């Protein structure tokens, strides 16, 4: 692993391409090193995971709307769309499938200096593989590269502190992953990464205040934009350069400024891509920092007389406190009429419901009747978060044994007594009580696809996807969740 120092440079310096971060990312993406077996195994797990959460969201309005937009752009050979029969242009397939994968906030995550959902790289890379006739080995290589770039960027560059949305790391990662999939030269991938970054750097208001369905669309937009960037670069078109380090570039004006340095760790030439192994999926449909706290609430529930609770304080990291806790300053996080997207970014709400119900469900736990239940609202408003420097330190720790995304919960009762407990990582985390392996990914798929995908079609999909590295181009082209028909459009726009 090589740690690359990145900073802004004046235009007069003419920073050579080989010293620019976009070039270094392109070099990693296009390094044709063999994909390790354990990386390929995890790629299969995450394709299953994506399909599972997409199946559970197919009937939801934002997913229907994205799918109907995509179906207005048929193409041959095209790419498949979850929940449809017709094939569409790859960037539109990536759009529809990206929204389906992201809608329930239920797939994988990686947290470091910044945060991310690296599984968002899969829909656009798969769509391009299908449209261009690539086989399973190429697809695995592309997905592994996409994860590698996104994890490296998330480790090295914090976007959140400058209120930039994390899709700014996703666009370059997808462009690099597509470059690896197609075996493109570094020059083309370099240009595509620059374009993808430039067009997908947006503010994080999509995850602040009253959060809307755009939270699901934002990563799909990044994937779509990255496909278009690669297409333009393949036709000889260039990008802003140097896009990260330029005098008017991303670092100088959108991140830390001209005096700030970032360190991005990337594999050395010939070094295998293993970053996907550092990522982790979700057992619960909610923002990742709430995963461990849901598990703790489920364990505490039988011990707590909810009628005697005076207040609950969750001592946790800076990030959890300020993004999904009371430190955000968002009154919407305590509003029973708030959107589902807002509630899944409210750890006071999530902890209250998990404490009462002893479970968390991707639909029932967010129902309007559930969120407005008087006793739930009363408990919810007794819950606050507080930043604890020790939990912040552990959140950013690089030693897996020290890293933690949970917190310490103190429950004070009306008689003055207290109950305190803590949890470091979610049960499903690789170091948790019940780490996810292939068996759990398959079970998650079957549970979420139940009633959506017919049992025979579920078996066919799982049998096929578990052979992913060996799939032929024809098999990759048909890799989707089958349905009987596209059905009539339920929404209407320009297309």
From TrEMBL:
Region feature (Disordered): 320-339
Pfam families named among the record's database cross-references: MmgE_PrpD_C, MmgE_PrpD_N
Residue span, MmgE/PrpD N-terminal domain: 19-262
Source domain of life: Bacteria
Domain MmgE/PrpD C-terminal, residue spans: 284-468
Family: Belongs to the PrpD family.
Protein name as catalogued: MmgE/PrpD family protein
Protein source organism: Amycolatopsis minnesotensis
